[in-house]
Amino acid sequence: MDSQLLRTFLEVARTRHFGRAAGNLYLTQSAVSARIRQLEEAVGAALLERNRREVRLTAAGERFARHAAQLLVAWTRACEDVQRGEDAVSIGCGAPAGLWERPLGDWLARLSLYYGQLALNAEAQSAEVVLRRLGEGALDLAFVCEPPTLDGCTLREVARCRLRLVSTRADCTPPEALGEGFVLIDWGVSLQAELRRHFAEMPTPRLRVATGRQALYHLRQCGGAAYVEETLAARGCGEGGLYEVAGAPVLERQVYAVYAFANARIVLLEQMLGEF
């Protein structure tokens, strides 16, 4: 079966819209429709119900969607294994973008130095997407800041990140820093709740970014403040123009690795996590 048919079906199932699926896949809408018809003929069942307002999965489509994701992952991995040769071991990892700065960036560098047989694929996605792809088998390891409850998976704390409040004003107080110019970096929903506990009067942040580097660049261009991972915060202050806000609480985020019990590479995964 053509893997492109599976990819097209999964995108239509995700978006529930032929036009949006076509745009995301850089295809015409008629090409998407043709692929879906071809897939339905191959499967021998109608997978989608179409009307002017929406697209729905049939009962057969709901069942097939679970298999389609696994088939696509298996096909992709098979192609990668063939292309990389006998000695390479393909490992897929995913995390929110900010975690790849610290601490995952350092961990990835150590793996590259000491595990020469690995063919690593590091994805930057939202925590929700990373965990979904782990469940589909597209990833071997997922890294998140908020521990999920997933059947059949192991949860392991691998690192802790300390966040320090920095500002472009040397005399800024903590309440002032959490005012209109505060930039929120995505460290999970629980961080927002913790900020509310410390700063009950803080307004809703007008800008949210994925990484510390994005936040620091914005601060240098526009001014303001942000809670930044302490290594990046120290570097930013050392370069000038940024100051740690005196009296601000230091916040801490746990980083968890999530992986499936049934993963055939579980021994290797645990060895890799030992490099933290």
Automatic annotation (TrEMBL):
Domain HTH lysR-type: 1-58
Keywords assigned: DNA-binding, Transcription, Transcription regulation
Top-level taxonomic group: Bacteria
Gene Ontology MF annotations: DNA binding; DNA-binding transcription factor activity
Protein family: Belongs to the LysR transcriptional regulatory family.
Protein name per UniProt: LysR family transcriptional regulator
Organism: Plasticicumulans acidivorans
Organism lineage string: Bacteria, Pseudomonadati, Pseudomonadota, Gammaproteobacteria, Candidatus Competibacteraceae
